Amino acid sequence: TLNHLEIGTKFYYTTNYKAPFKRVITLDINFPQEENWKEILVGDEDNIIESVSLVMGKMVVKSLNQAAN
């Protein structure tokens, strides 16, 4: 699953790649190799990231808190 936000040459992705509870990474499209990715936020079993939006220049994260089935 990938969602992305774009600001200039910086892309912000929400992904479950190497992150079972999702994470937010940023990368510069001029240097897209994985070793250049920067991790911004990592979900965990108590805070599962659902989505990320950009609102008035601020990143808004929607997450499930202490979810149980």
Tell me, rounded to a whole number, the average pLDDT.
Answer: 85
Number of helical elements:
0
Radius of gyration: 12 Å
For the biggest sheet, the summary is: 4 strands, antiparallel
> How would the global form be characterised?
flat
Helix-strand category: mainly beta
Query: Proportion of β residues?
Result: over 45%
Q: How do the strands of the widest beta sheet line up side by side?
A: 1-2-3-4
Order of helices and strands: EEEEEE
**Helicity level:** under 10%
Could you characterize the architecture of this molecule?
With 69 residues, the protein is mainly β. It is 0% helix and 58% strand. It is built from no helices and 6 strands. The strands form 2 sheets. The protein has a 4-stranded antiparallel beta sheet with strand order 1-2-3-4, with no helix packed on it. A two-stranded antiparallel sheet has the order 5-6. A hairpin with a 7-residue loop joins strand 2 and strand 3. The radius of gyration is 12 Å and the shape is flat. The two termini are 21 Å apart.
